[in-house]
Amino acid sequence: MTKHILLMDGPDMPGLIYHVTGVLFRHNLNIIRNDEYVSPDGQFFMRTEFEVGSAPAGAEADDLNPQQILNELRETLPEGVKLRLNPKAKKNIVVFVTKEHHCLGELLIRYSFDELDADILAVVSNYNTLQPLVSRFGIPFHYVSHENRSREEHEAAILRTLAIYQPDYLVLAKYMRVLTPDFVGYYNNRIVNIHHSFLPAFIGASPYRQAYERGVKIIGATAHFVNNNLDEGPIIAQNVQEVDHRHTATDMATMGRDVEKIVLSQALKLVFNDRVFIHQNRTIIL
Amino acid sequence: MTKHILLMDGPDMPGLIYHVTGVLFRHNLNIIRNDEYVSPDGQFFMRTEFEVGSAPAGAEADDLNPQQILNELRETLPEGVKLRLNPKAKKNIVVFVTKEHHCLGELLIRYSFDELDADILAVVSNYNTLQPLVSRFGIPFHYVSHENRSREEHEAAILRTLAIYQPDYLVLAKYMRVLTPDFVGYYNNRIVNIHHSFLPAFIGASPYRQAYERGVKIIGATAHFVNNNLDEGPIIAQNVQEVDHRHTATDMATMGRDVEKIVLSQALKLVFNDRVFIHQNRTIIL
Amino acid sequence: MTKHILLMDGPDMPGLIYHVTGVLFRHNLNIIRNDEYVSPDGQFFMRTEFEVGSAPAGAEADDLNPQQILNELRETLPEGVKLRLNPKAKKNIVVFVTKEHHCLGELLIRYSFDELDADILAVVSNYNTLQPLVSRFGIPFHYVSHENRSREEHEAAILRTLAIYQPDYLVLAKYMRVLTPDFVGYYNNRIVNIHHSFLPAFIGASPYRQAYERGVKIIGATAHFVNNNLDEGPIIAQNVQEVDHRHTATDMATMGRDVEKIVLSQALKLVFNDRVFIHQNRTIIL
Amino acid sequence: MTKHILLMDGPDMPGLIYHVTGVLFRHNLNIIRNDEYVSPDGQFFMRTEFEVGSAPAGAEADDLNPQQILNELRETLPEGVKLRLNPKAKKNIVVFVTKEHHCLGELLIRYSFDELDADILAVVSNYNTLQPLVSRFGIPFHYVSHENRSREEHEAAILRTLAIYQPDYLVLAKYMRVLTPDFVGYYNNRIVNIHHSFLPAFIGASPYRQAYERGVKIIGATAHFVNNNLDEGPIIAQNVQEVDHRHTATDMATMGRDVEKIVLSQALKLVFNDRVFIHQNRTIIL
Description:
The structure is a homotetramer. By secondary structure, chain A is α/β, with parallel strands linked by helices. Helices cover 32% and strands 29% of the residues of chain A. Chain A has 2 domains: 4-85, Alpha-Beta Plaits; 91-285, 3-Layer(aba) Sandwich (Rossmann fold). At the A-C interface, helix 3 and helix 8 of A face helix 3 and helix 8 of C. Chains A, B, C, D: Residues 5-83 form the ACT domain.
C-alpha cells in the first residue's frame, strides 16, 4: 500500500494534532507513524506517515486526493502553518569533491545499488583527481578548476553547470573550498557538508592536526547544512572515534575517514527522507 | 504549571489519536509532548504529556477533572484500550543485593539527592555485607539469609518483609539468586534486574569469565524486566565497553561495573517515568 | 627510511626482550615501536618495528642482512620461539561474496585507492549478482554456483579457482555458505569472516531477525577468523550500533551493514599489517 | 608475588630498552608487562612491571634492592633520563567541590570500598552544601567560603588547609572556581579536573547551555590536568553521550553528569596507577 507523508511546521497552539488527524480520519486515512515536537520557543513540527484505510464492507476505498486533503488542512489550520504533502520521494543531487575519494566512493556504491534515496546527476570538482572513479559508475564528471579564476568567476562557472541539472540538493563530500554567501543563498538549506571534526571543536582547516596537537582522546565528524558562516550551519549528525597518544595526525585522518563517510550517509538518508526540520540553526529530526 | 501524563495501550484502529486529542482539546488541555508507536502486529501505544491551557480573556481556567477526562476517553475509545492518567509520580521501591556494592551505592547516592524518581523503602540482601553502606543513608536493611532454608522458605521470608513495604517495584541491583516463578508472579513486570553481560550473550553465571574465554572485544550490561525465564525478560537498556586481549576476566568485571550501574540507573529512570510499555517480550520506550 | 617488522611468539622466560633488543642494538638497529604481551598461561608475543640507525661519524650505515639477524636471534633465543622478520607487506587475497554488495563495495573502493594493504586477485561468488560491480573495477569475477553440486563438489570447484591465484588470505565478505573443515584446513588462520551480529549473540542464520525478536537495544558485527566451528573462531574486531523498538529486523539489517563493512575493513587492516596473533582461540593485537 | 613498577622518561636513543632489560635480567627480575612509546619529537617513555623471578635450583631468590637497581640503571643510561621505581602505591588526595554531588558521591563510594587507589584525606568546598554527604563517610569537610575574600585570600585559606594534609593530588570534582597560576604552580601536574564538555568544544562556563544552542548531537566530558590556561591542560580521558533535539540544556546537564563521573574516575585510576606521562601538553598513557 502507498505510504503518504505529511510535513507540518508552524506556531504551536492548542488542537493542532486534533485538527490534522480529524481531516485524515474523515478521509479514511490511517496513520502509520506520527512524530511531533514543540520547541521551547513555541514552534510546532509534525511528520505524519499514513495510508489509505481499508474500505468498510460494501464501500469502495477512496483514492487519495492530495489537493483536497491540503485544502481541508489549510482551512482547519491557522495561517502561518507550512504544509507539505508527499514531497518528492527521490531527490536529485550533485556531489562536490576535491581530491579525497572516501565519501564520494561511499555515495557512488550506495547509489549504484539504489540505496541513496537520491539520484546523483553529476559530480563537480575543482580537481580532476577523482574523474576515473566517477567514470567507473557512468556519471558525468565536471572538472571546474579554480585556478586563474576569482572566487566569483569560479562559482559562476559551477552555477552554469548546475543550471543543466537543477539539483534539489548539493552534497559537499569533502569539497575543500569555502562557498560565498551568494552561492549559498541560491541553495538555502539545500547544501549538506561533511566536516572532519566533532564541531564546534576544530572549526576551519586541518582539524586532525589541531586534534593531535590538543591531545584529544576522541575525534569525530559532523554533517551539517551550510549557511553563511563556515562550519556553523545546523548540525544533522555526528559521530566519534576513540584515539590515543600513539595516533599521529595522519592516523587520525585515516581513522576519521571511516567516521566521515558513515556520518555523511546517515545525514543524507535523514534529509532525503524528509525527516529533518530546521529551526533557529538547530535541526529537529522526526 | 502541572504536567499531566496519559498512557494508552490497545489494538490499533483509525482515529485513535484524533479521538484522544479531541477530548483534550475540548477541555482546553494543551499537549506538550506526544509519542506514539504502532507495532507491526497492530498494537497502538501512546504517551501524552499535557497541561491545562491558558484561559481565554474573561474566562476562568478549568482545573483538570481527571475522572471526567478518563470517562470521556473511555466513551470515545473502543473496548480493550487500556488508559492510565497521571500514574504515581514517585514510585516506592525495595532494592535487592548480594555482596557487590556498586549498583546499590549508585542508587543510594541518587536517592539521597532526590534524583531517583523513587523512594527506596528498604534494602534486602541474602548477606549482611552491605549493611554498613546502607546504614550510612539511614535506610532499613533486611538481612534474609538463604542458608539452611529451601528456596521457597527463603522467598517466603522475603515476601513477609516486602509485605511491610508494599513496594511498586523491586530492583535487583546485583542480586545473585534466581527467583521462582511464583515469586516473580507476585511482581509481574515490576522487577527490574541488571545482568552483567550484553544479553543474549553470556546468559547465566560468570558472564565476564565467559566473555574472557570467548575473546570478545566488547563487553556490556543489560537492564531488563524479570519474567520466568532467567535473563530472558524484556530488555529496557543496554550499553557496552571496549576491551582488548590484555584485560583479564577480573579486569572486565571491574570495567563492567561502571557500565552496569549506569545502565541500571538509566533503565530505572525510564521505568519510573512511565516511559516503558511491554509487548511480546519487547519494551516500547516512549 | 625503511621500516622493518619482527614478530615473535613462544613460551615466556626471563630475558626474552633483553636478548632480542641486544641483537638489534649490536646491529645498530633502532627500535621505533615495540609491543609485547604475556598471556596468563605464559605465552610471550612481541611485535617490534625498527629501522637502520644513522651511522656514527666516519662509518657507513649497515644495510640490513635479514638472514643474519634471524640467525643471531635464533642462537640467542630458546627453541620453540617462532620468529618472522619482514612478512610480506602487501597480502594477496581472494574475496568471497554471495549477493550483498556493501562489504565488497567497501573493499573495492579501498583497493582501487591502494588503502587495503592487500591486492584483490579475484572475487568468487555462488551467485552472479555482484559481477557488474566487480567488473567496474576490472577484477576477475568467478561465478561458482553451488546448484546441482554437493558441498564437496562445490568446494572442489572453488579450490581449482583458488589454485590459479595462490592467495595469502580469503576474505568472506558476506559469503553465506558454511565451509567444510577440509576446506578451512587448507587456509588455517587465513580466512577472515564478517558475521552480522555481536558474537556470541545470535550465532547462525538471520541474526537481525533474532535480534529484533529478542528486543535488544544494541546490535553489532564481528570480524573473526574461521575455524571448524561456525561463528566460533578467534574474534578480531567488533562494533555496535544502538537501535530501538521502532526498528524492524529489516531496519536493523540496513543499519548493521554500515557496521559490518567498517568492522571488516578494520579487522583486515590489523591482519594485513601483521598485528594479529592467535592463541587459545583468542586474538592478541599488538 | 610483589609487583614492581619502573617508570622511565627521557630523550630517545638506540639501546634504551636493551640496557634497562639487561639490568633487570642480571638481577633475575621477570618482566610481566612492558609498555613503551617514542614521541615524534624523540622522547622515550617506558613503564615496566616486573617481579622477582623464581630462583634456579639450589640458589636462593634475591630480594629486590631498589636502590641498587636504580644505581645500575643510572650508570647504564645516559644523563637526562628520569627514573622512578615503585612510586607510592596509594596516593593521598584532597577533593574540591562546589555544590554538585555526583562526582563526589562517586569518589566517596569507591573510596569506602577501597576501589579508588587513593585515600581521600579531606573535602574542600566554597559552599557547605555537600557537608552532609561527606559526613556520611566520616571524612573531614572544610568549608572555605570565597565570600568577602579576594581570590588570593581565598586561595591562601585553602592552602593553609592543604598544609595539614600534604596531599599528592588535588581532584577538582566539579569545583566551579578558577585557580590562579600561583596556586596551580604549587601542584604542577598534580591537579585533575573534570570539565563538563567534550574539550576543546565549549570551553568556559555553561557548556551544556552552549551545546544546546549550537544544536550538537553528541555531548561529552573531559578529565584533564590543570595548568595555567583554563580548560587547556593535558587531556587524560574523554567520553561522550548522544543527544537529540528533544533534550534541553537541563536534560543535557543531567545526562552529562553520568559521563562526567565515570570519566573522572577512569582518569584518576590511570593517574593513581602511574600510567600517565605528560609531554608537550599531551598525555601518554602506558
